Amino acid sequence: MYEPKFYIVFDIERNFRPYQSDAPTEIVDIGAIKIEANTMSMIEFFSALVKPTASLSRHTTKLTGITKEDVKGAESFPQVIEKFREFVGEDYMFVTWGKEDYGFLTKDCVLHDTECPYLGKEVRFDLQRFVFHAYQELFPNQPNLKFAVEQLALEWEGEQHRAYADAKNTANIFLTAIKQKDIHKSYKRNIEFVFVKEGSLTDKGKKIMKRWVFKELKRTGVSQLTWDWFINSKTWENVSEQYHFNDITVLLLQNYFPTALKKSQQQLQILAAMNSQENQTL
């Protein structure tokens, strides 16, 4: 794992619309905390509203509390991202709750034809995923930020769904995790807690297995997928990096594989038929 001089814990909020629209879902709020790696101390802070090119949606205001008046006098994205790049500096690693924000940041940089901070995989740390695996006893499912704060006995700071507050709470979790866990270690969850009950796959286990098979079918387009192919696939490699499987569980998954494959093939056929009908109506 890359050893940075600084950790940049950041969060963004977007001008989101839960309905189909031609207007871009641009970033409207960026918040970040800079942590010095040697001392694990918060040393700098960043918070900025961003004026979007499209009108702020009511959904965004309801979720974040940000109003049209708030962003009316804000700087544009190119101005804000330039200041953010300066704040980030060099020799850093980003820390985020989940990984979606990287895509949103990249998308807006492309939209505004401006330079983004370097976002390569080696400088990203997904704290949500780390916490989910490292604190298996606390989180049966992948937690949202607020729930993680509560489960780790921390106090929530600020307004939820505001970028700086979410970044600050993410930073608090990060500093707690560093004291309690090895952030360089790749923790794996014991999948048996979810997949197996009384010697059989649970309904949830079957559902997740079918999701993995469907993902591999869609990724490769291989119609006659076999178990040997599947356990040597990129999908299984990614799964194995996150979960520990004992021999009994692997055997149960292998036995269920034909059923999962058949259901996945049926799902793909349905999706293909729906796409065909849509194309005919255009």
Strand arrangement in the largest pleated sheet: 3-2-1-4-5
What is the chain-wise order of helices and strands? EEEHHHEHEHHHEHEEHHHEH
Mean pLDDT comes to 91
* CATH C-level class of the largest domain: Alpha Beta
The major sheet is characterized as: 5 strands, mixed
* Beta-strand content: 15-25%
Number of helices: 12
Q: What overall geometry do the principal axes of the alpha carbons give?
A: globular
Provide a compact summary of the structure.
With 282 residues, the chain is an alpha/beta fold.
Q: Can you walk me through this structure?
A:
The protein is α/β, with parallel strands linked by helices. It folds into two domains: 6-180, 2-Layer Sandwich (Nucleotidyltransferase, domain 5), CATH 3.30.420; 189-281, no CATH class. It is 50% helix and 16% strand. The chain contains twelve helices and nine strands. The chain has helices at residues 58-64, 68-72, 77-88, 100-111, 127-134, 145-151, 163-180, 192-195, 203-220, 227-231, 234-242, 247-281; strands at residues 6-14, 27-36, 41-49, 92-96, 124-126, 189-190, 196-197, 200-201, 243-244. The strands form three sheets. A five-stranded mixed beta sheet has the order 3-2-1-4-5, sandwiched between helices. A hairpin with a 4-residue loop joins strand 2 and strand 3. Helix 9 crosses helix 12 (247-281). The termini are far apart.
Write the layout of secondary structure elements.
Elements: E1 6-14, E2 27-36, E3 41-49, H1 58-64, H2 68-72, H3 77-88, E4 92-96, H4 100-111, E5 124-126, H5 127-134, H6 145-151, H7 163-180, E6 189-190, H8 192-195, E7 196-197, E8 200-201, H9 203-220, H10 227-231, H11 234-242, E9 243-244, H12 247-281
Parallel strand pairs: 1-4, 4-5, 6-9
Antiparallel strand pairs: 1-2, 2-3, 7-8
